[in-house]
Design brief:
Elements (H helix, E strand, L loop, with lengths): L1 E14 L29 E2 L18 E2 H17 L5 E4 L1 H13 L3 H10 L6 H17 L11 H4 L17 E11 L6 H11 L2 E5 L5 H15 L16 E14 L10 E5 L11 E17 L4 E7 L5 E8 L4 H9 L3 H9 L2 E10 L1 E8 H7 L39 H4 L9 E15 L9 H4 L6 E4 L4 E7 L4 E8 L5
Parallel strand pairs: 5-6, 12-15
Antiparallel strand pairs: 1-7, 1-14, 2-3, 4-17, 5-7, 8-9, 9-10, 9-12, 10-11, 11-16, 13-14, 16-17
Helix pairs in contact: 2-3
Length: about 500
């Protein structure tokens, strides 16, 4: 039996210097939402235009995105294009990164706001931006649901493949856990409207910290939060010493655990060659453990992109690992393939997949990444956030003037009066981001041999017509069906690290 565990944690530290802060006090914040509780009913879906079917494949070509899930998938592709030029295994969590940036967007204004909207692909008017926040918050709550999908993936609906070797066992539920937190310096005057919006949209917990008086205890508390919300997989996201200049830490944690729907057999795992720069450069080949299985898998030969896509579903019929690989893949071909992808093309390929009897061979992987996203986001034209002279996160801070509108559980009210932030009794220094650190743990391995185990020779005795051997650079995406959100995404040039 093969088990996959994927964990992503994103840490963003916002630093401000020299503010004369007063105590935040014991303000009573709104009650947190229950998982799945909707803020506003919304069915805003973006549907890519139907494509022509090829070779009888893709009986259903509709793949519906929410505006938010479309934007997050596009963010994944853009970040992946940059990271793929720097790393052999650039795996990250688009959902985790988008969560943290969306929280910053709630508190941003002027140029910083415009740049964040552009990076997040939220290039809409103010009213629509509020709707996207509501929509994105609803999608995040749907991740934890176990009810039947409202918008099933086409290949799940049209599955006509039968596997006589299916094991007789009760499927184990997958686990998706997502948490957002603000760690605020005790005394920083945080805008109640920003607090209410972050809690209402993203169920964010607010924690007052003594960064300057007790930095070690603050670091211990934050690291314990990370450990608790990643089930012990990531135990440290900040050092034992936090700078006294730190005013706020915005953190997001995503934990995913699932079992394959089709079990891999441990006996079939052998050392096979993987070619980090393609078959045309055999001198770069490495012998790595490679798993193999024959079963029913969603598959599409994407001739229009000179590539193939195969899906490995998890138990529970909610998520799948999608592997996209160009024909004759190499480092340069995969980079070219990724540059020419977008969210719509990914959706179209998934929509055209049909379940086929297939041999699938994939590398065992254990990837641990710590990525500083500052340089990556600057390459995506997010500059002002990191510059103390230009960053504008003024909506995070409590304004002078009239009290903000009250908070209601079914709606979030934004103050549109910019004068509240301009009519201050004295100039206030700017909040700016010093670092954006993203940590990911990804593991694909075998655990046990449930059911009647078979030998490797039995597995390869009769090969199906569809054979997918992942032994050259490839793209991977762990997608959640109902929300269309990419939980994890990345380009793999060398699975051995």
């Amino acid at each position: 039996m093969v088990r996959i565990r994927c964990v992503g944690v994103l840490l963003l530290v916002v630093v401000i210097g020299g503010i004369n802060a007063q105590n935040v006090g014991q303000r009573q914040y709104p009650q947190q939402f229950r998982p799945g509780q909707p803020l506003v009913q919304s069915n805003n879906r973006v549907t890519p235009p139907p494509q022509q079917q090829q070779s009888g494949q893709g009986q259903a070509t509709q793949f519906q995105y929410d505006t938010a899930s479309f934007a997050v998938t596009e963010l994944a592709r853009r970040i992946g294009t940059v990271l793929g030029q720097q790393s052999n295994a650039a795996v990250f969590s688009p959902v985790s990164i988008a969560c943290a940036l969306s929280l910053l967007l709630l508190g941003a204004d002027n140029q910083t706001k415009r740049e964040l909207q552009s990076v997040l692909n939220f290039n809409l008017n103010e009213l629509d931006i509020k709707g996207v926040h509501r929509q994105y918050g609803r999608l995040l709550r749907e991740l934890a649901l176990t009810s039947p999908d409202t918008y099933p993936i086409p290949w799940r609906v049209n599955d006509r493949c039968s596997d006589d070797d299916d094991e007789d066992f009760a499927p184990e539920p997958q686990l998706i856990h997502l948490a957002n937190a603000l760690f605020v310096k005790d005394g920083l005057q945080v805008n109640p409207t920003f607090v209410d919006a972050s809690k209402g949209f993203y169920n964010t917990s607010i924690n007052l910290m003594d960064f300057s008086g007790n930095p070690q205890q603050s670091a211990s508390y934050i690291n314990q939060w990370a450990s608790d919300n990643t089930y012990g997989k990531i135990n440290q996201i900040v050092s034992n010493y936090i700078s006294p200049e730190t005013q706020m830490i915005v953190a997001n944690a995503l934990y995913f655990k699932g079992l394959w729907k089709e079990m891999f057999e441990k006996q079939a795992t052998t050392f096979r060659k993987f070619y980090p720069d393609g078959h045309a450069n055999p001198s770069t080949a490495k012998e790595i453990p490679t798993m193999a299985v024959i079963g029913c898998y969603p598959y599409y030969d994407a001739v229009e992109h000179d590539a193939k896509i195969v899906g490995l579903p998890y138990q529970g019929d909610k998520t799948a690992l999608y592997i996209m690989i160009p024909n004759n893949s190499s480092r340069s071909r995969l980079q070219h393939f990724q540059r020419n992808l977008n969210a719509q093309k990914i959706g179209e390929m998934v929509a055209k997949m049909t379940v086929r009897k297939a041999l699938v061979q994939i590398p065992k992987m254990k990837i641990s990444n710590t990525i500083n996203l500052r340089d990556v986001l600057q390459k995506l034209n997010l500059h002002s956030l990191f510059n103390p002279a230009t960053s504008d996160l003024s909506k995070m801070l409590k304004p002078f003037g009239p009290n903000p509108d009250p908070y209601y559980p079914d709606r979030v009210v934004f103050s549109d009066s910019q004068q509240q932030f301009q009519q201050q009794s004295q100039p206030q220094q700017r909040l700016y981001a010093s670092e954006i650190i993203h940590k990911v743990e990804l593991e694909i391995n075998e655990k046990g041999t449930e059911g009647g185990a078979v030998t490797a020779s039995t597995i390869f005795r009769s090969l199906p017509s569809v054979q997918v051997r992942i032994d050259t650079p490839f793209l991977m995406m762990i997608g959640h069906d109902n929300t269309r959100l990419p939980l994890f995404y990345g380009s793999i040039y060398d699975p051995s690290g």
